[in-house]
Design goal:
This protein is an all-alpha fold. Helices cover 75% and strands 0% of the residues.
Amino acid sequence: MNETSKRILSAAVALPIYCFLVVSDVFYSIPILIASLLISLGCLWEYYQISSRDEGNRPFIAAGMAMAVAVNLVMYLYAFGRVYGYAAHVPPFDARFIFAVFAIGLPIVFAVHIRKRPVAGGIYSLATTVFGVVFIAFLFSHIILLKALKDGYIYVLILNAIVMLNDSGAYFGGVYFGKHKAGFKVSPNKSWEGYFSGLLTSILSMLIASMVLESFFGKSLFSMVEAAIIGIAISLIGNIGDLAESALKRDGAIKDSGSLIPGHGGFWDVFDSMIVTLPLFYYYLVLKGVQ
């Protein structure tokens, strides 16, 4: 089976499960917490495997994973506490608890380092541990905040669709039309034709999504110009997420972050663009007045 067939088959199996977790509100919207935990922890685990060098130069995996779980739980409690009444049990519950996770977690990581690791590996071990939690777990857990907005599942699905179509457009555009290499050392096979195809696909997809929102859901949220600008931003920022992962993988001398998803690689290979675009889209919607 060629790579394209593997990609299509994997998507056909995984997408329905992912969509259920995003759309479902059963058990106090726990499915979106499960989705965020599975994906962010999966990406973080792969990142930690890539960044491990030797006994003294590797992240504190257990401490980092524990902090990532805490970040996701805090995001969930903050996002849905007022919706389901959790806030009544932990007053006043707000976003400052995210800072509490890091304020408590960082000294613990330092304590583990002092107890177990040589001084020579301190900077590398501590930096890789904390960076992974912030860059992957904290950023991706914004999917919980996005879902908690009114009709939030729609916005999650729209963003996923735009990112997926941008990646697909770039992939097929590069395969069939790619002649001029973009020249990025971290991803030397990418072409300008591929990037342009992805950008065009992202813009068109966002325009269509905006029209669908207005026609079927009565939400006149974006003008056509605004939708086009959002499509450009998602494509550009998503590509940065992809290149960032490529740089780290190249430093780790590997091609894919994992092999769990046939045709795509690992969790991080699939969600590298979502990690950086989720906060962008969420905070833009908040600025627009969506609650």
